[in-house]
Amino acid sequence: MLETKIIGVVWRNRPLYFVKGTPLYGYIGFGVIDRGTNVLQVRPTTLCPLNCIFCSVDAGPHSRNRRAEFIVDPDSIYEATIEIARFKGGGVEALIDTVGDPLTYPYLTYLVKKLKRSPYISSIALETHGALLSHRLIDELNEAGLDRINLSIDTLNNEKAKLLQGVEWFNIDKVKKLAEYIVQETNIDLHITPVWIPGINDDDIIEVIKWAYRIGAGKKWPPATIQKYNIHKYGRKVPGVKPLKWRMFWRKIREIEKATGLKVSWEMSEWGMEKRKRYPCPYRKNDVTAVKTVSPGLFRGEYIGVAVKKEWLITIYGGGKKIDHTYYVRIINDKDCLLIGRIVGET
Ligand code: SF4
């Protein structure tokens, strides 16, 4: 049974929900996502203190499209992660990636510690822009058994970083020093992964990659990759910048590798990634099922519901939605079992 409870309001008008229980599969914003490999995306928080101008999930205080935020009970998300990891036969990486920043999660160290003890989890990683890193938090995460931090640094220039991250208080020099501390003083591996916004930080990403190699990132996993700037339905768009086509992106990546002599593209196997059986998806496109609404969704116009028969989270669009109400919903998208449905009637 899934419980959602408002525990506060963030950034003046967004309710913050605490989510507990089951199911925690099927929603892009929180819970666990299985994309058919030995890596599970674990999403315990949607919060982020930054306003990156390119944010594909429109996170942070200046978000225009978000209407609610969520944090998930750590024991519930642990159970959900382990259930799928066990189904996959173990040897699974728990990648705490989120549609915000994992460092906002108040139970992060507790969750990492718990996951570390599981025989089904082989590594634990998280993805962050590093704004909330501190020596103390790094030490705690190191002790808890965190294996890797994927750190997005999009420029080494302080003024440009403030612009890209959308907040005056962002201090890239501090993040750099903490990154070096991670490499030198902890067992946590560091992977540097700048977002490349063509025409905005072309030279910066090359400096970032050189710096990543120089400081010794990538003790066990690849030292650096470059992320492609993409536009999503609710994401922020950088004025005047068009995302590159994938073919062009990979051509540029090869040019960067040739010019610097540094590798930034990696095969799945070099990441230790492999295909694995997917946890069974209970519904398919065009199925119609009864769904009970439990809360508004992350973004304007969407609600989150739980399928009544075979419990699973479904994002609902259409109709005059009420909370705690049951609707008939037709599934219109089932990719990776992140189910999206449209209301077709009331029960
Ligand atoms: S890109 Fe990441 S760090 Fe930046 S606002 Fe979005 S979620 Fe936050």
UniProtKB/TrEMBL annotation:
CDD domains to which the protein is assigned, alphabetical: Radical_SAM
Residues in Radical SAM core domain copies: 34-263
InterPro entries per the UniProt record, alphabetical: Aldolase_TIM, Elp3/MiaA/NifB-like_rSAM, MJ0103-like, Radical_SAM_PqqE_MftC-like, rSAM, rSAM_sf
Keywords from the UniProt entry: Iron, Iron-sulfur, Metal-binding, S-adenosyl-L-methionine
Molecular function GO terms recorded: catalytic activity; iron-sulfur cluster binding; metal ion binding
Any one Pfam family match given in the protein's UniProt record, by short name: Radical_SAM
Domain of life: Archaea
Protein name: Radical SAM domain protein
